[in-house]
Amino acid sequence: MLGAFAACPRLGYYYYFGGSKRKALSEPQKERIQFLKQLSAGHLVAGEVVHKAIRAYLMNAKEEQIWKLSQVISFANMLLDNAIQHTADITAGVNREYDHRAPAIILELFYGAVTAEILRDDLREKMRVSLEQFYNLPDFQPFRNGSLHENSLIERKISLDYEGILVEGAIDLMYPVGGDWVIVDWKTGENDSEESSLQLLTYALWAHEELGIPLESISLFKAFLTEGIAEPLLFSAQELRRAKARILQDIELLTEMEEFGDAANWEAFSACGQPKVCVQCAFQEICSKK
To answer: What is the pLDDT, as a whole number, of residue 193?
Structure first.
């Protein structure tokens, strides 16, 4: 969420204040903002699908049901197709009921920036590459093996309470090796080293503060699926303290924004006006960019 403020303060307002059920209660477009919050860029949807496909593979493998690569890819394609169909339904005004959470609404299709056929082919190819790398590459074999441990954690949701504000996330994979623990974060995009490192360090903070695992017993890895690289993130106690300080600074910044956000004063949150950001924004329908 704080990443949204960094990309565009107006975007942060829509996500954290305007689209919240408990904040900015006088926001006149609240219902529409809450709907638009469901939109997600195609590459993010594909990344989420890859994570779900890997989770399904690992959970089944833990139960001694090993999926073939073709099954993993087929499952991912099905999830993507569901999102594309759901977007088409929403755009056409068709409402469907789902047993569980509805599929994502794909931003580019909702705004008509690309055809479903072109987007499907592009995202399927990217997902195929990532899943083949995960399934076949020796660099990822230790992670696949580690997930089979009875105490492994697969997509474990976590939260840290700092000054009444919850810092939440989900660890893709965590497993023990002897007396140590390995934490893995699957990456389907480019190496945004600072933010992705902060994310992993936050997981280390959780493991240390909530589970009591000594820092020297924690190993962190970024698993870049597209590039086929498992990159260790080396860290010290000092770097972990810096990461915690960064989180607390972000919380302090968010607290300073509360007065304006709760008052639904969206004009206090400037729009970035950057075309590359705006074209990927779920709220382009209502943002004046002023």
So the answer is: 61
CB 51 within 8 Å of CB 186: yes
Asked whether 272 and 278 are in contact (CB, 8 A), the reply is: yes
How far apart, in Å, do the first and last CA atoms of the chain sit? Answer: 22
Amino acid at position 9, single letter = P
φ, ψ for residue 189, nearest 5 deg:
-110, -160
CA dist list (Å): 117 to 17, 109, 124, 194, 206: 35, 10, 11, 35, 42
**224 and 129 both lie in a single domain:** no
Residue 284 lies in a domain: no
CA dist 182 and 221 (Å) reads: 8
Residue 167 belongs to domain with CATH number: 3.90.320.10
Indicate the helix (H) or strand (E) that contains 130: helix 116-136
- CA distances from residue 30 to 4, 139, 257, 261, 283 in whole angstroms, order as listed: 18, 46, 18, 13, 12
- The tokens of 262 are what? 């709760």
Residue-by-residue DSSP string for 58-109:
HHHHHTT----HHHHHHHHHHHHHHHHHHHHHHHHT-----SSSPPPEEHHH
Segment 113-124, tens digit of pLDDT = 999 999 999 999
Condensed to tens digits (0 to 9), the pLDDT of residues 224-274 reads: 999 999 999 999 999 999 988 988 888 888 888 889 999 999 999 999 888
Cα–Cα dist 57/187, whole Å: 17
